[in-house]
Structure prediction request, 143 residues.
Amino acid sequence: MRQRVILCPLIQNQGAYLLCKMPSDRGVFPGQWALSGGGQEPDETIEEGLRREIREELGEALVIEKVEPWTFRDERRVKTYADGTTEEIYMIYLIFDCHAGNRDVKINDEFEDFAWVLPEDLGSYDLNEATRFTLVQKGLLQG
Prediction:
């Protein structure tokens, strides 16, 4: 089983949090809303990897003013690839509080949509299990 360190930004701007909708045909949580983020590369620091993932997935124009480590956890997940193959992965999540200076997001093909969501509206989204757990742990959603 492959192991991946996943760098997850919990991005906030003016009280709203950034959620991204996963493609319905692939990924660990197909078709559900999630935090952005991805795997750390061997040649980069944790913050370099986090900022690279944000740039790649959310575009160059999104300004991240502050990054603070928040929490971590691990779990085993099955990832489905675009060709239909699957792989079990041991995932170590490092989650960061991030403050954005703007809302200039341009998603790449890893997502179908994005939304800036106020805490009181988070429960109306079809959140994946990992994102729901994170938001409950943060006190933004009821368990």
